[in-house]
Each structure stands twice: as C-alpha cells, then as structure tokens.
Amino acid sequence: MSLWTRITEAVSALANGEGLSAVFDRLRTPPERSVAFAIAVIALGAKMAKADGQVTRGEVAAFREVFQIAQEDEAGAARVFNLARQDVAGFEEYAARIKAMFGDDTDALCDLMEGLFHIAMADGRYHPAENIFLERVAEIFGLKSSEFQRMRCRFVPGAAPDPYQVLGASPDDSLAEVRKRYRALVRETHPDRMMARGVPVEAMRLAEKRMIDINRAWEQVEAAHRG
After folding, report:
1. Total number of domains constituting the chain
2. Residue 160 sits in which domain range?
3. Model-level pTM?
C-alpha cells in the first residue's frame, strides 16, 4: 500500500467524522508515523496558507516540492488535498494531537516546522499572519523560542542568516564546541535518522535544504576563526 493510499484512508476517516485522537492513535508507530507526518504538513499547511487570506498556486507547488510527488501518485495527492480542505478542525487542535503523538521527539517536530516554513515562503513573502500562526504552532509543539528563531532565520529572507544561530551555537563558543554542534546537526539530518522519526522518504528535500544551510554556516564560522 503506497504512502498516498494510506494517507488518503486516514484523511478520509477525518472527513467522515472520526476524531483526531482516534486517527492519530493509529499512526503512532513506524511505518505509520510517516503518514502522520504527511497529514500534519497537509492539514497545518492548508490552514496556514489561508492565514494570509489566500491560497496561492505557489503554496500548493511548495507542498509538491517538499514531498516530491511522483506522477503515478498525483491523483492520490490531489484527493488528499480535497479531503483536507473539507476538514473543519482548527489548527490548534491538529497541532495539539501532533504534539501528543510525537511527544518529546523535538527533532520530528522541527522537521514538521521546516515543512511549514517552506510552504509559508512559497510566494516569496512572509506574512505577519503566517508568523503568528507558526509561532503558535511552535508554542503548542513545546519548541524553544531559540529553535523557532533558528528555523526562521534560515527560511525568511532579509539579513543573511547568522551562522551561529543556524548551528544553535553562540559566538562565545570555542571552535571545538561549534564543531561538536555542527556534527550533531549533520547526524540528525541524515536521511536514515529522519526516516526513523517519521519523515517519509518522499519528503527528503527537507534534509537536503537543511544540510546545505548547516554546511554553509559551518564554513562561515570556520573561515572566521581562521581569518
């Protein structure tokens, strides 16, 4: 059974009135956690896309980029979008159920947030309403403010991302300490680790982007210490 078939079944259950708790309780363990991950991005992404008053083609395309939908899965993916649009549950309820399912797995919750940031930036603009939405989701997920800021600085254009912030380090840290943090982030971003915590293989573009940002930040820090 393909990922999109399993996702469609779960979202259909929601559209037919089955409660969030019951559906997500069935998705707690691998491989079904990958279904839960995709549903979370679909549901929260769709609700966030409306936060700025409109759903753009770019936002839909951004979701397709995150999940790299194969041609043979396009019909199933379209059905999922249509079912998700019918669901009337509020985003806070979804976020709370997702938090309950992933528990203290902060890495998985950060993976989810990165998918949402990618969708938010699809139209090239970070709307204040989207920021409020994402801050509230991060709060429900129990993420630290520093973790939220670290992700936002990577996705939102403006000033160049601070390399220390990207790495979750401080300019006062020694090079050895920053290197230790860098290597930890590389391990967390390995596709095997991401799949183990529920990120479907179809969403590995998230890992590719994160690895590029992490490597660039480390190169900048290392060059500053040499210079």
Report:
1. 1
2. 3-226
3. 0.74
